[in-house]
Specification:
heterodimer, A: about 110 residues, mainly beta, four-stranded antiparallel β-sheet, about 0% helix, globular, B: about 110 residues, six-stranded mixed β-sheet
Amino acid sequence: SQTIHQWPATLVQPVGSPLSLECTVEGTSNPNLYWYRQAAGRGLQLLFYSVGIGQISSEVPQNLSASRPQDRQFILSSKKLLLSDSGFYLCAWASGRRGGYTFGSGTRLTVV
Amino acid sequence: DQQVKQNSPSLSVQEGRISILNCDYTNSMFDYFLWYKKYPAEGPTFLISISSIKDKNEDGRFTVFLNKSAKHLSLHIVPSQPGDSAVYFCAASSGGGADGLTFGKGTHLIIQP
């Protein structure tokens, strides 16, 4: 069966520090991968999506970047965190066919 | 500009009664709609979906209705149970959905005993 792993679960980082969140998928090949963010009092905002290795599409200009070095690995990064980067970050995958996306358990990032 | 709108931030329903969650959209290109359920500190879980070629889809206690002319969909939960208390997100996609889902801001459903 397919599973998605996301870590860490919680993270507290100072302003200006770097960030690296990792997401891996098991049990499937060539998935579409997504990074979403839920900021306080807001819905789920799509940040990046990837349909293959090295292919990244950005939905919102921001202080973040994403990379897909392997088929089932998706990384969210920042060189210097801002206070506004705080939020709940979710990785998701889809098989490419119509159907529900599967989300990871999320990372609660607090920038202080 | 928010393309998927859930205008009720919260909804309180008595256990055993029907819960109706509403969602409106503005993008005519959306052709697939989904509902997700989310508990605190967890990722959303898929609940039910509907294609734009249908107006109703039912799965157990959950039914989603789609009114394309009004660009409106709703999720009915009957009977409501305490475990249904969660945040419900409406989402939409177009053209296969490879470029991601567009979510509403969510509605916090509270089931009162």
